[in-house]
């Protein structure tokens, strides 16, 4: 699962990075069409940001609750005293599930989810700002009557604005996909690390030989 996700997000990052070199404002939608596209993009990014944050929080809460439940069921009240050494499933040679849940809980907290959340917020902020600027510009253009020469000048200015706006969106979107790619890399590394340590704990538990912490 994690390997497939990494491959997918890496391909997305490469695609958006290469898109910069083939960018063109020719045929770029204008007016209401462009406004609708921007609004839909903003909605999709908002949905993605909320879904990702909810998934990370739910994942972390579930594993933390499971880890706490296991420890509470394994340790006696006096063993949970603050004066005692922290619980170590490896030192006590507990069943492998204890090692799995403890490492899983710690691993989730170390994932770079906040960096991705911040990148998504930046992209949303840029989209919102560009939509406001577009609305303001369209409103001003509707209020002014221009002749043919002025229209040509306006058209050139509009092309420059479109190119600038596309560059801004591209930069923010590239940052999001870069952070998503890094999050996937860290998740895959966490999974592989937990899998290896859990297997080592299983072997040690079966052989009744404690492992070093």
TrEMBL record:
<dbReference type="Pfam" id="PF04782">
    <property type="entry name" value="DUF632"/>
</dbReference>
<dbReference type="InterPro" id="IPR006867">
    <property type="entry name" value="DUF632"/>
</dbReference>
<feature type="domain" description="DUF632">
    <location>
        <begin position="1"/>
        <end position="128"/>
    </location>
</feature>
<protein>
    <recommendedName>
        <fullName>DUF632 domain-containing protein</fullName>
    </recommendedName>
</protein>
<feature type="region of interest" description="Disordered">
    <location>
        <begin position="138"/>
        <end position="158"/>
    </location>
</feature>
């Amino acid at each position: 699962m994690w390997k497939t996700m990494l491959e997918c997000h890496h391909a997305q990052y490469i695609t958006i990075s290469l898109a910069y070199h083939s960018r063109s404002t020719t045929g770029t939608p204008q007016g209401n069409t462009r406004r609708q596209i921007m609004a839909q993009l903003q909605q999709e990014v908002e949905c993605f940001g909320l879904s990702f944050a909810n998934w990370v929080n739910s994942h972390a809460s579930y594993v933390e609750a499971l880890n706490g439940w296991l420890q509470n069921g394994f340790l006696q009240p006096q063993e949970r005293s603050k004066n005692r050494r922290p619980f170590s499933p490896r030192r006590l040679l507990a069943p492998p599930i204890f090692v799995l849940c403890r490492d899983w809980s710690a691993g989730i907290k170390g994932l770079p989810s906040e960096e991705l959340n911040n990148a998504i917020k930046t992209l949303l902020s840029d989209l919102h700002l560009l939509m406001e600027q577009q609305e303001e510009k369209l409103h001003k253009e509707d209020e002014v009557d221009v002749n043919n020469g002025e229209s040509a000048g306006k058209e050139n200015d509009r092309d420059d604005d479109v190119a600038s706006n596309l560059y801004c969106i591209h930069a923010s979107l590239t940052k999001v996909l870069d952070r998503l790619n890094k999050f996937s890399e860290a998740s895959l590394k966490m999974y592989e690390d937990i899998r290896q340590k859990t297997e080592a704990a299983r072997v040690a538990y079966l052989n009744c030989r404690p492992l070093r912490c």
